[in-house]
Specification:
The complex is a heterodimer of chains A (about 475) and B (about 190). Chain A is of the alpha/beta class. Chain A contains 24 helices and ten strands. In chain A, about 55% of the residues lie in helices and about 10% in strands. In chain A, strand 5 and strand 6 form a beta hairpin. Chain A is globular, with a radius of gyration of 25 Å. In chain B, about 20% of the residues lie in helices and about 25% in strands. In chain B, strand 4 and strand 5 form a beta hairpin. The longest helix of chain B has 12 residues. The N and C termini of chain B lie far apart (about 55 Å). Classes of the chains: A alpha/beta (about 475), B alpha/beta (about 190). Chains A and B meet through helix 2, helix 3, helix 4, helix 8 and helix 10 of A and helix 1, helix 4, helix 5, strand 8 and strand 9 of B.
Chain lengths: ~475, ~190
């Protein structure tokens, strides 16, 4: 389970203690960002695709109740049972109710951040149902009793040596065999047994099509397909923002999702589920859990356009250098840092500050969510609700005072440019700047304002001469 | 009030101002001069291979040449194909030969939704997946594909590209996560 009491700065400092691991984490995730860029550049229409995706989602949110009702009616016509859950607890009760009524002992699950959000696994386990996560990365973190550290690459915080050790203990693989192919195929053999003996399968939902009443699930591993084609019961849990109006709109979203997420042209399997397999039954649970509240918030409702590709965290300089476990909300990175505080500012407020406001997240987002702007707005809320640590609050108040008094600001700058170069190193060694192994930067001779005035003057003089 | 009605009422109250649905067909998308070449180049990086059926050879010939020691082989492309009563019964299939209705050049996927198949588990349990696609059934992008596909198989259909794969261990790409370990697309 996710430790939702962590505060980003402290947790990130802890993560950065292992410099080699932190460096690896940063470069492994940056590599995925680069693969995403390579894919995007192959399509001349990439920016147009982002615009279309944004507009389709924006339109859908503006008529979400109508599309949900249409989706429900069409799903019911297909013979699917549709359930509605106002919150996490209701979702868990519905899923357990379906399973308990059919004496299900083992449930195989494919990736679903929603069920992580709802805490479904412990809920079912406490009631005697074995839950097997089947995505390789999710299985790894499940066996380690951890939460995923990334929404698409759940085990990206781990090295192969750690996974080898875990599999040796849990699956009986050879000690010290760290070969990813060997380890993956060992998990394959083990999970095949689970697929073949499961009583029910649960999947998340990437897209729910109002026009056809079906859901689309994208995986590379094929675990969602095995988990739904073998057992007689398929439950699909979806956040209510997953709706798209028409089947043809997948012609936009399936082109963006895998390219943005992992830098692949598509996932191996893009599966469209409209009915259970013969002899089976299919259920869809539509979950609100705070989403309809976010919809009503002018500043933050755009976050509901998210298709959970993870591109924003792959590009985020803070995420790459702090890992998913430094974030208190189950979804880390930029998108999590707006969804978390929207849900519970007191608990997740620190996430909004885990941001350099560089805006890279907004620039890669396939549905063009204004992520970095939302984080700034959350900071404002955190300040107004008096949730900042005293030191940070004092710093901000001092800064506010200074920026409101330009003369004082100028004087402060002057003093700093003179004083910093003569401070003995022993006094600055423990500053936040120097602790990370950096020298203090050389102080410029002039302030920006002075430089700007100088240049304007020079330009005027030059024009005067002509 | 039921959860459903409460949720829908709250959405109605909170939903943002109406915006228009864009026309996704108004934007020009990429075109490929040689669709087969684009498809075949791409699928090699996705744990698969693509060939055009040579004159005078059958699909079975091509499959036999590729995997001479194949175990249980099931061919769904023939009219009187083998059928089972339980989806688990496909668990030991080594090679499954299945009809694909459409291929997409931009991402090397094949649309699979076979009106004459009972249990879709065969596509995912088989060790090696052979997709047989008519040569003329090729489109450039997913937009073209969605204009043509049909959900013909018990409400199910999937785009499949190459082998099942994962990079969940240190970003190392491994073929054969849960589904097929190898994939072959034969254009006929």
């Amino acid at each position: 389970m996710k430790d939702d009491s962590v505060k980003h700065p402290q947790a990130a400092a802890e993560f950065l203690k292992d410099r080699a691991q932190a460096k690896w984490h940063d470069s492994a995730i940056w590599w995925v960002r680069q693969k995403r860029d390579a894919q995007a550049k192959q399509l001349p229409e990439w920016e147009e695709l982002r615009r279309l995706a944004r507009e389709i989602k924006a339109h859908t949110l503006s008529q979400l109740d109508d599309y949900l009702a249409q989706f429900e009616a069409n799903a019911q016509n297909n013979g699917v049972t549709v359930h509605w859950a106002a919150d996490a607890d209701e979702h868990n009760r519905i899923v357990h109710g379906i399973l308990a009524a059919r004496q299900v002992k083992k449930l195989v699950k494919s990736k679903s951040m929603l069920t992580e959000e709802c805490g479904l696994n412990p809920y079912l386990e406490q009631r005697g149902i074995e839950v097997v996560d089947t995505d390789l990365g999710e299985r790894i973190v499940q066996l380690r009793h951890e939460a995923p550290s990334h929404i698409v690459m759940p085990a990206i915080h781990l090295k192969k040596e750690q996974i080898s050790e875990l599999f040796h203990k849990e699956l009986g693989t050879e000690a010290g065999n760290n070969d990813p192919t060997y380890l993956t195929h060992a998990a394959r053999a083990n999970l095949r047994e689970h697929f073949l003996t499961a009583d029910a399968g649960l999947t998340g939902v990437n897209f729910a099509i109002a026009e056809t009443g079906g859901v689309v699930v994208c995986t590379n591993e094929g675990n969602a397909d095995l988990g739904t084609s073998l057992p007689p019961i398929h439950i699909a849990s979806m956040g209510l923002e997953k709706i798209i109006p028409r089947l043809e709109h997948l012609g936009v979203f399936t082109r963006l999702l895998a390219r943005s997420a992992i830098g692949s042209p598509v996932t191996t399997y893009t599966s469209h589920f409209h009915q259970a397999r013969p002899g089976g039954e299919m259920h869809i649970v539509i979950v609100d859990n705070g989403r309809s509240d976010i919809l009503g918030n002018e500043d933050f409702y755009q976050s509901l356009r998210c298709i959970r590709c993870g591109a924003c965290m792959n590009t985020c300089p803070v995420y790459r250098r702090s890992s998913g476990f430094s974030y208190s909300y189950i979804i880390p990175g930029p998108i999590g840092s707006t969804l978390g505080p929207s849900r519970d500012m007191k608990k997740h407020g620190s996430m909004a500050f885990a941001c350099s406001t560089c805006g890279s997240c907004s620039n890669v987002c396939p549905v063009k969510i204004n992520l970095h702007e939302q984080l700034v707005l959350h900071r404002k809320k955190a300040f107004e609700q008096n949730l900042l640590p005293a030191g940070k609050k004092m710093g901000l108040l001092a800064m506010r005072f200074l920026t409101q008094h330009p003369a004082l600001f100028d004087l402060g700058g002057k003093v700093m440019r003179k004083v910093v170069p003569i401070i003995p190193e022993s006094l600055t060694r423990h500053s936040a700047w120097s602790r990370a192994g950096r020298d203090l930067p050389p102080m410029p001779a002039q302030s920006f304002k002075e430089l700007y005035q100088q240049r304007s003057q020079d330009k005027q003089d030059k024009e005067g001469q002509q | 009030m039921s959860a459903r009605d409460t949720i829908l009422a709250r959405i109605r109250q909170n939903r943002p101002a109406a915006t228009a649905l864009p026309d996704i067909h108004a934007v020009p998308f990429i075109r490929y001069d040689d669709q087969f070449a684009a498809f075949a180049t791409l699928i090699r990086n996705l744990g698969g291979d693509a060939v055009q059926l040579p004159d005078g050879q059958s699909v079975a010939d091509v499959v036999a040449a590729r995997w001479p020691d194949a175990g249980r082989t099931v061919d769904l492309t023939v009219p009187q194909h083998e059928e089972v009563d339980d989806p688990h019964a496909w668990h030991d299939v080594d090679v499954a030969i299945v009809p694909g209705q459409l291929a997409v050049a931009e991402n090397a996927t094949v649309w699979v939704s076979h009106p004459d198949n009972r249990f879709r588990s065969i596509y995912f349990l088989t060790q090696k997946l052979v997709l047989v696609v008519p040569r003329e059934a090729m489109v450039d992008t997913m937009r073209d594909a969605y204009a043509r596909i049909q959900l013909a198989e018990h409400g199910f259909g999937a785009f499949i590209s190459g082998s099942s794969r994962t990079a969940d261990i240190e970003q190392s790409l491994v073929m054969g996560a849960h589904g097929a370990m190898a994939a072959l697309v034969i254009f006929v």
